[in-house]
Amino acid sequence: SKDVSADLAHVLYTKEEIQAKIEELAARIDADYVGRDILVVGVLKGAVMVMADLVRALHSHVTMDWMAVSSYGSGTQSSGVVRILKDLDTDLLGKDVLIVEDIIDSGLTLSWLLANLHSRGPASVEICTLLRKPEAAKVEIDVKYVGMEIPNEFVVGYGLDFDEKYRNLDFIGTLAPHIYE
Ligand code: PRP
Ligand code: MN
Ligand code: MG
Prior knowledge:
Number of helices: 4
Pfam family, one: Pribosyltran
Pathway: Purine metabolism; IMP biosynthesis via salvage pathway; IMP from hypoxanthine: step 1/1; Purine metabolism; GMP biosynthesis via salvage pathway; GMP from guanine: step 1/1
GO molecular function: glycosyltransferase activity
Bound molecules: 1-O-pyrophosphono-5-O-phosphono-alpha-D-ribofuranose, manganese (II) ion, magnesium ion
EC number: 2.4.2.8
Mean pLDDT: 94
Cofactor: Mg(2+)
């Protein structure tokens, strides 16, 4: 079949740019968590690539766990009403939790997730996201670690999907209009 990269309009961030940003985030996180173990929580499925690269760039002691959540409601827009498809295996009591996301769009998923995880008695909860769309925010969330802020455009690759596709690209780009029109 045709190379998937043929479906892309522009490359937003190359593999090298993403890896450099991940290294930067990891260095900041290591500096902030000196002497503390980190429970890194990846939000399936988008966060898999960031998670895999971030934890390998960290020097801190980490354990990993995963959550899968789904927004109720229509189509591609997040509704803010979230249901848990896969919960954590780990008890959060007293843990330093770092949520890892690929992107914060409206912020509704994360806003719900934050409240949910906070209710479980962790010592701390912080967020690390590779991408953030400030213009799309419907709720303000305090995010400690942000890789890049991007315009309100539909992006795919490096975990980000369109109709479950393009997650496997090692770069981030915008889709060619003929794909979604
Ligand atoms: C995407 C993305 C974030 C969320 C951000 O996940 O990976 O988790 O949407 O949107 P929000 O800030 O508007 O809530 P999606 O629900 O598409 O699931 P996926 O990770 O499996 O692709
Ligand atoms: Mn996601
Ligand atoms: Mg998605």
